[in-house]
Amino acid sequence: MTLPEMKYPLSRDQLLDLYYFMKLTRELDEQLVRLFRQNKVVGGLYSSIGQEASAVGTAYTLEKRDWIAPMIRNVGGLLVKGFRPRDILMQYMARSGAPTGGKDGTSHFGDLQDRHVVSPISMLGDLIPVMTGVAMGGRYLGQKIVTMTWIGDGGTSTGAFHEGMNLAAAQHAPFVCVVENNQWAYSTPVARQVPLKNLADRARAYGIPGYVVDGNDVIAVYQATKEAVELARRGEGPVLVESKTMRMKGHAQHDPAGYVPPEMFEYWKARDPLALYEKWLTENKVWDKKAKDEIEARIERELKEDIEIAEASPLPNAEEAERGVYCEGCHTIEAHWERPIAEVQPPKASVQPVWTVPDFGALNNARGSAPAAAASAPDDGARAEAHSNSSAKSAPAGSGAPKRPARAEARPKGRR
Amino acid sequence: MAPVTMVEAIREALDEEMQRDPSVVLIGEDIGVYGGAFKATEGLLAKYGWERVIDTPISETAIIGAAVGMSYQGLRPVAEMQFIDFIACCFNQMVNFVAKSHYRWGGPVPMVVRGPCGGGVHGGPFHSQNPEMWFVHTPGLKVVYPSTAYDAKGLLKSAIRDNNPVLCLEHKFLYRRVKEELPAEDYTVPIGKLAVRRPGRDLTIATYGAMTLHSLDAAEELAKEGIEAEVLDLRTLMPLDRQGIIDSVRKTNKLLVVHEDVRSGGIAGEIAATVNEQAFEDLDGPILRVTSLDTPVPFSPPLEERFLPQVADITRAARELARY
Hints:
The complex is a heterodimer. By secondary structure, chain A is of the alpha/beta class. Chain A has helices at residues 12-37, 52-59, 75-80, 85-92, 127-140, 159-171, 202-206, 218-233, 262-269, 273-283, 289-312, 405-410, and strands spanning 67-69, 147-152, 175-181, 184-185, 188-189, 210-214, 239-244. The longest helix of chain A has 26 residues, at 12-37. The radius of gyration of chain A is 23 Å and the shape is globular. Chain B starts with a strand and ends with a helix.
């Protein structure tokens, strides 16, 4: 069997893995709807249907050491990062066995130590500066990590999105922001929110690479995001990836989405990410019926077991409400250093605290016309470079970069 | 040892903690090359470098967000608000992300947010505020508010070493007006413990920040009239040293609360409620309060003077209370 050629090759096992995670997301979603109808889900239920390729294809590009922060429709990302359906089921069912023990619901949970997952909050945009900080912290500690979060088309209108992307760009943080353009912010179509054809165009304003990808094609999602992750890991980020997809249900279970033109659902239904990928796997002879049946049987078995576990988990004891406001010794705070600590302590860390501004902010700030004085900029000083539309190809350096001039010089080739 | 000012004490705390623990990093606006608007971080960039003293865009939401992210990496970031008034710009990060992280999902946030607060320097409505109660009212945060150089240093060190998010409010009027000799050796001041600044038997004045100085001045005058006021410097507003207040009230049987924060929703109300609940039988008079007006902080000197509590306001209230 020969697999289709790809820039970032995927083995047969990996290709089937992608299917497993997408199908598991879909089936988990269907089971949650069933539990919702049985009144076993507490509060709202948010569907990932239609966006499985987008969540799974992006998260699958990451390594174990990398960090994610999922949004509400990124159940697939949680599964790829090692959480199990039982965790999501118990979150929605507000059970004591849930990762938050019933303190919060939905995908609002995480794991700092092993899976490197940061919990979202309901307010959109705030994860972007937070994951920028995780990336900056990882770089400081010498880890070669990349951080990733997702945001919807609606969330890109928040101030926090802008502040986070701008800081990430100024810091060249190893961070990938996936904009999941699912066409709808609750009931408002994207055209009424943002006067741009492609939300990835916003990357230009931050002087960073931006990609647009078909969010319902898991292979395309993986390939584009993998490139973004590699750029970010090399210090050529951050990167913005727009994944164009479609939210196939209402905002939550209560919302029949009557505001969506029926033809629009029809259009996207014909582009269902699972159906498309099943077809691709068959046409490229990656699997046969037996392989497909095995995966589906495994999912059925795992879900059955996890639903039993979730249903057996009791609701939390009421007194738990009073616990855990503060960490009172329950956590050990420890940074994982992967570089010599001496590098960040004096005398090694000490610098000349001066700015150099290579072109003095001159109107014509092409590098060739920079005043001669700028050429003598000290290497150990952070360089404040005036960025104009013509400077995107220059090598910028911010306060996070001056220790790594070589990497900063390498930046132009990764830029648009 | 020469006496050091409060702002120097803060710089010493940051310097010593950065030296002691490489996981301590600073982030904020103009804190590096410039050394901070009030020079609290002067010299630290030169010593610790660009990676540990991070100048940011004008972007409070990004500053707090990035600090949270770094704290998830096991670092102990100290974020500076150039003026604490600007913390309103990142209110969501503070109250929804930072404060609730540990309770919701067990994500500890060992970070510090510090910045200059308070009036009396004609800073106007946006450079003079006391926002402590916005955060005292948000479970998950700790709030400290020192009145001496010794406490500013010791509380900031405790805050950096704490596994929880701590908001350190530094009264800018005190930055260069209070000074004292500090111990040469490492020390901390525990979060959650008040200090009795002046013992007395006739009434208790519970206060904090710059009003501690006003209250001590008032106590001095009252003493000339034979009224011995006990002055409590709360130092930490959350968690509040309720027991320390109750203990004093059990002794003096009278309580006056003085704060620079505005009247409605100020901590005086919380303290009065606590004493009512726990020491009602010990009270010989009403719980009184001297506070700022329920207005924004006005700019022009006579307006700001009217807005802020004055020593005479404290002595007047204390005399009234002493009559019971």
